[in-house]
Design goal:
Blueprint lengths: L5 E5 H12 L3 E8 L12 E6 L4 E7 L2 E7 L12 H14 L13 E3 L5 E3 L16 E2 L1 H10 L4 H17 L7 H13 L4 H7 L9 H18 L7 E2 L9 E4 L3 E4 L7 E2 L1 H20 L4 H18 L9 H11 L10 H16 L14
Antiparallel strand pairs: 1-3, 2-4, 4-5, 6-7, 8-10, 9-12, 10-11
Length: 370
């Protein structure tokens, strides 16, 4: 939503909203931009050109008392407020916290403009939820568990690996020209609570396979990678954001569905590729102690097919910090409490090698575990 965008709403709808909020019939007196001459209103009018980020002073009578309130939205900006869901988070926080601080202006309500011009309250919220359609299928991680147990591939495994790789090649073709948004997503790779720094902060102290000093060193090196990646703004594309085997379902052999898209619509394609392919390494480490056998076949098949379909050779110079993030996830004692010491140590060797690596060689994954 750009700064020039505006909304038009019917003053009758505004009166209805205020009457519902104050639990009594409201008579509007004036509506106008704060600091500009007041305008007496007629309910046959609409407020046109209501500017996002501009405070509007609303005066009305309710229960024989005159009240004045300020209605304000947020502007879209490059500081993490590009999308309506970003701004919703900030406004919900404002409504929750304004009234808790002494002498702070009190929030009466937080609401939303609907597409039909009405205003609806969400101020009495407790917790938000999402209602989704159920999709049929079996999670892909169950395939990987079977492969680990049987130590062999069937034709369906190759077919599904191809479909998984094709899907990313397809969605990543949709590009977006927004350098600021790409830099935001790279910044979030480090600083978001679900990403590198958040994962590092979740690691308990006094672990036998790592230390606070080692985690600090990893974090510091990741900052250098941010400066390498933030210039690659032409790579911004449509992404899933959490494309791993627990978020992918298959039915009818190779009919794919996905769940739980995360952290935004646009991002770096290496994010999705790393999220899936780290699991071939992860399951193989638990089975063979290295990338070996059927998992090596699937890893190479997935990556070769993706690069062949997209022509994205540059991803081999980009994917390293995304592998760092995903390796921190699968090495986590919180997410995987029963993982062996040996597997965790190899994952941390992998992390250190990724941070030092200029270009990934897919044929040399095992050397990065040493």
């Amino acid at each position: 939503m750009g700064e020039e965008e505006t909304v038009t709403f019917d003053l009758r709808r505004l009166r209805e909203y205020l009457s519902e909020t104050y639990k009594s019939e409201v008579d509007l007196v004036s509506v106008g931009e704060l600091g500009i001459e007041k305008k007496t209103v007629s309910l046959t009018e609409a407020v046109k050109g209501f500017g996002y980020g501009k405070p509007y002073l609303i005066e009305f009578n309710v229960n024989e008392k005159r009240k004045s309130v300020v209605l304000e939205t947020m502007r879209s900006n490059i500081f993490g407020h590009e999308f309506p869901y970003d701004r919703a988070q900030s406004l919900l926080m404002a409504h929750t916290l304004f009234s808790r601080l002494p002498r702070h202006s009190r929030s009466v309500d937080v609401g939303v403009f609907m597409k039909d011009g009405s205003l609806q309250s969400v101020g009495n919220y407790s917790e938000f939820f999402i209602l989704m359609e159920k999709i049929e299928g079996q999670e892909y991680y169950k395939d990987l568990e079977r492969i680990s147990e049987e130590k062999k591939l069937i034709n369906l495994d190759i077919e599904r690996c191809q479909v998984l790789s094709d899907y990313l090649a397809e969605i990543h073709r949709t590009r977006k020209d927004s350098p600021e948004l790409y830099r935001r997503r790279v910044r979030e790779l480090l600083g978001h609570g679900e990403c590198i720094m958040g994962l590092i902060d979740s690691y308990p102290s006094k672990l036998d396979f790592t230390s606070d000093e080692e985690l600090e060193s990893i974090e510091e090196k990741c900052v250098g990678w941010r400066w390498k990646l933030k210039k690659k703004t032409n790579r911004l594309c449509q992404v899933h954001g959490d494309y791993h085997p627990w978020n992918v379902l298959f039915k009818n052999r190779a009919e794919l569905s996905v769940l739980d898209r995360s952290r935004g619509e646009w991002g770096e394609p290496a994010d999705d590729v790393a999220a899936m392919t780290i699991n071939y390494l992860f399951f193989s480490l638990q089975t063979y102690g290295c990338l070996e056998g059927p998992f090596k076949v699937l890893y190479q098949k997935f990556l070769d097919n993706y690069i062949d379909k997209t022509g994205d050779q540059e991803i081999l110079r980009i994917i390293q910090p995304y592998y760092v993030w995903r390796a921190l996830v699968v090495a986590s004692p919180i997410w995987y409490p029963n993982l062996s010491y040996a597997v965790r140590k190899k994952l941390f060797k992998f992390i250190h090698n990724m941070l030092e690596l200029d270009k990934l060689n897919p044929d040399s994954i095992n050397s990065y575990l040493e």
